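QUALITY CONTROL LOG
STEP: pairwise intake check
CHECKER ROLE: data steward
CRITERIA: each record must contain a sequence immediately followed by its structure tokens, with no blank fields

ENTRY 1 OF 2
RESULT FIELD BELOW
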Amino acid sequence: MADPLFPMKTDKKIKRVLVVNPFGIGDVLFTTPLIRAIKAANPQWRIHFICNKRTRPILEHNPYIDEIIVIEKDEYRDLLKSSKVDFVKKFLSLLAKVKTDHFELAIDLSLGSQYGFFLKLLGVKRRIGFDYKKRGRFLTDRIRIDGFRGSHIVEHYLRLLGPLNIKPHGSEIEMRVSEEDKRWASEQLALKGRDEDRTIVGIIPGGGASWGKDAGRKQWNPKNFAEIAKSLKGERGLRILLLGDDGDRQLCDQISSGIPGGVENFCGKTDLGRFAALLGSCKLVVTNDGGPLHVAVSQNVKTISIFGPVDDKVYGPYPPGDEHVVMTASGVDCRPCYEGFRVADCRDYRCLDRIAPSAVLDKAKELLSKAA
């Protein structure tokens, strides 16, 4: 008898599957349990994944994905401005590839109508996804949502297995790191510190790149991160790594310069694979809400994450557990205010400012005292 939660039978005619997730680091990581479940249930299916250039490294060594297709919207926009002819050629080439690959099934996580339209136009017979604001009109199997709320995004994504009669195959997010990146991280840590056996703590004061100009809305005061780093380095003699992308360099330099003896500043010096490898060397990572948090979780590292306007029950570390501590402000009734993929027009940072460095430090010491 079929499970009532999964009433439909898997289509035996399916050979190729296209998964679409054009969003940021966290969102693509949240997709990995879905991918794993699909491949576990149907190992003969070839899974192709559409993502952007920034998130490609998350998927490059994933054993469940057979091919990655990169679509960088900014490149298409720039090409359209410079040469409409070249834009049309590139776009038609992309459509031709998708059509030539003969996908029988698509899982569309874009929350828009554009991908669904072109997938239907290109003859993908079955198109599963979310119907957000009636944008799922070109999908054959749609789950209506008015935004991600009530449960974690991973769990929302796993709901899309229902129409395929597939059950989850574990809930852990994952990012496989190459042996080359692991060797690089090991060599860098050996070069920068003689006491390789000292416990390493990663500090990530930036993040939130997918929010663009509003990234600062989800970032704790850098002085607080400096206080945490200074205390852990001075009181406990730990090795502190400052991490972030190129846009966080000034922030990390500011923190590093204020700590006696400095810290090991890798900010802007890694790609995503090497970033993940360095995180994998840490016993604890202290970070803002955002993609870097989820990369740390994917490397099985203990985390302390700072959540202001965003709902940690939806966007927090997954799966949740004692090794992942989420810090939020108490007595701030207006949080979380990020809803419908928009943050409230608010310049009151109480939800971040009321998270005391001393409370974060206490949690850090507690996690570090536990056996690895």
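ENTRY 2 OF 2
RESULT FIELD BELOW
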Amino acid sequence: MGPSGRTRRQPTAWEAATPIAGMAVLLGVGYGVYHFPVEILLIAASVVAGFVALRLGYTWKDIEAGIIDAIAKAMPAQMIIIVVGVLIASWIASGSIPMLIDFGLRIVSPRLFLVTSCLVCGIISLLTGTAYGTAGTVGIAFIGIAHGMGIPPGPAAGAIVAGSYLGDKISPFAASLNLGSAAVRCNVMDVVRHLVWTTTPPYLIGLAVYWVAGMRYSLHSVSEERISLIQQTLRSSFHYNWILLLPPLVVLVLTLRRKPVIPGMLLSSALALLLARLVQGRSLFESANFCVTGFKLDSGVAIVNELLSRGGLQEMLRISLVAFCAFAFAGIVQKAGILDALLERILRVARTTALLITSSVAATLATALVTGSAYLSVLIPGELFAPAFKARGLAAKNLARATQEAHSIVPVVPWAIAGVYMAGTLGVSTWAYAPWAIFNYTGFLFPLLYGWLGVGTAPLKADDETQMGS
């Protein structure tokens, strides 16, 4: 019974399924077919979930508290996204990103572009642990190179997203990995070593596909005049100097030294604004305005203008608006026990090790699709399934691996915060790049494969699994 005196009860199977089915229909038909604004559809799905919550005995105050709690949990990711908007605008204003694009157009082979972008983004994300930061900086440079070479935006963005999420999955610096390890109470480095066996195959599969697909792209299929025009426009619009590599270097060094991400990005942005004044001759007022409204370029060449007119707080706040609408729905289904009821029903079928692993992967996928949150996708299934793994004599790192592999689908979910961010930052729709982000939607298959084959599943060694080697 709640504080209002109303009796609350657990949802039945059909009550738990109603909000999920409602969201699937609204997004599938409304967004996928009729292209309604996704924010309105998410609000409509939240209304459906709200009616179910009221039927279960929850009051509006309860529903409101659930929404606020869900948004509060999302704020760390939201803060990074907002700061990335400042970072993008300041790096373009300083000339750092234009110089990297020009340099890439000179050295990157069109045939190897997809492989190169995935590898470089993968390395940067491993070092920094942030998919958002990687895609919002190096990723923008690569999408610019793709535009210059005439490479289709879908494959280019897919390779960038896949590379950016390598570090999100297995970098010791990644927030989702640390949260997932904390949820199941095991050592982060043990999880990293365990993940290598399931993360490497899908990444290599993606690289192989990019290699084959890239055979279509060569200097003969790319307009050299177009590349030359872009390079000349960049050089006439920006002054180059090797000192412009300092803003990216600051972020990299501070991350490697395990300093907080947001202060490092703000320091890099401040340095970029100073370089915009010293190297490009822009006033601090003009550059600061770019950080709010986004960088604007009027070079006379449409493709360059479109490529570099991005970033800023306002663009990122539009992304955050979608996230807030998604988290309103997530907060209601969590508060009303709808998500727990679904996950518990999934857990009931887990009578063997293979079924337990399958259930944990399915629960993570369901949470990712329902909430659109990478963090909730590792936290909720991790906390729910941890006792079951321990009772079966399985190490917690098996569960952490399953949730890490499955949660990486979030950037290919159009209403998920990661999907909205990648689409907005790279300027490519989620539907266009999703088929090419192979690493993101094939990773969860390997924990399933190992579980059913009975290989690579670690037994429980110690009660305290937070110690390395347990």
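INTAKE CHECK: passed for both entries
DESCRIPTIVE NOTE, ENTRY 2: The chain has a mean pLDDT of 89.
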